Structures are given as C-alpha cells and as structure tokens.
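Thread: quick sanity check before group meeting

JM: Hey all, I'm pulling together slides for Thursday and realized we never actually wrote out the predicted structure for the chain we discussed last week. Dropping the sequence here so it's in one place. If anyone has concerns about the input, flag it before I start.
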Amino acid sequence: MKLFSYCLRYDDGAAPNPFWELCTLAICKPVIRRVANIGDWVVGLGSTQSPIGNIADYVVYAMKVTDKMTLQKYDEFCRFHSPQKIPKWNSEIFEYRVGDCIYDYSQGEQPILRPSVHDISNQETDLDGKNVLISRHFYYFGDKAVHLPASLTALIHKNQGHKSTANQPYVIPFVTWIDNLGYTPNQVHGEPQLKKEFIFNPDISGFCAQHNLQDDDADDRSNC
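JM (edit): ok, ran it. Output follows.
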C-alpha cells in the first residue's frame, strides 16, 4: 500500500470530484493516475495561498483507491451508472458543472472534449494519465480542511508535483488517524474552496485550465 500526497492548490470540486457518493480523480495529476493501484491512498493537502488562508498542513481530502479504470471505461461507466459525473457546463447546479467525466468516447477511441473545467490545452496531460481512480472509502473536507497532527507533517509536499516513496513509514499511521477521527466516510464534509468563484465568475473554466496545466506539467516531472 502506497500513499501519494500533494498540494491541492485549486480545490474546485472537479479534481477530485467527491460528489454522488463516489470520489473520483479523472483529470489532473497524470502520474498519480497512471501508477496508483487499488488499495493505495491519495491525499490532497492544502495550499499556503488557499482562499481560506494558509492550510498547508491541513488535509483537504483523502481517498483510498477502491477501483481503477481507463478513461474510456469511465465514460461508459458514467453513462450507465453515474450520469451526474458527466459535466453540464451551463447548469445552475454547481455539482453538475464540475463533473469530471469530460471525455466522450462514444464516437470511437479518439475522445471528444466536453464543455467543462478543462479546455483543449489540458487534453494531452489529461489523457496521459490514462486512468481514473475511484474511491468508495474517502473523506472530503474542502473548506473545512482538517489539521494534520505533528507526527504526520512529513506528508506535506510544499512544491508542485507529488511524493510517495518518502511517505512509506507514515502510511499506516495516517490511515489509522484519519479512519478514527469520527468523520463518516463517503460524505462531503465541506464545500470546494473555489465554489464561489465558479458561481460568480463566468471565465472560471479558463482559469482552472491554465493553472491545472501548470500543476500537471510539474507532476509529470515529479520523481519522488
């Protein structure tokens, strides 16, 4: 079992997408999506410059990978089992707008990008991740991020990219800690930190696309 940790600089509700009783990582973080396996944990930690302040030593979300499938399989899965994850970009309902099943494979193996939080500039790195990580055992805190105990601050990754190998001594302590905090798993315990921006800023898609691309380029160069 591995634990991947990274700084979630832009908590927009799309990556991860914790809604509809499944936490999914279908876009962004291409390296993690390629190499993480069922049973591994992915942990998003806060940013020093988040909309709610310096939360660098706080957990925004943690998901145990309980399933893993290709992007094409995920598109099929969403069509039949989780249509809410398919983005409805013009919807007034926030959770529909940030759907992460953004690649339509109905016409064949070459996907069509649906209107969503990403644009064509993100497609190469999104597709390079190959897989979607799915969790039926997760904790999403969003703007109610939970403070890490001092014994686990080694998980903090201050730069872009992610870390995993160095986390190995802390995997079991982290899982034990988070599973015993008293939070009910598989629920949304806080709002995405950028939710208000999505509601009031019509140009938010371009903002997310640009900044996620920068982070994903760094993730591709990550070697930890």
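AS: nice. Residues 3-220 form one domain. The mean pLDDT is 90.
JM: adding both to the slides.
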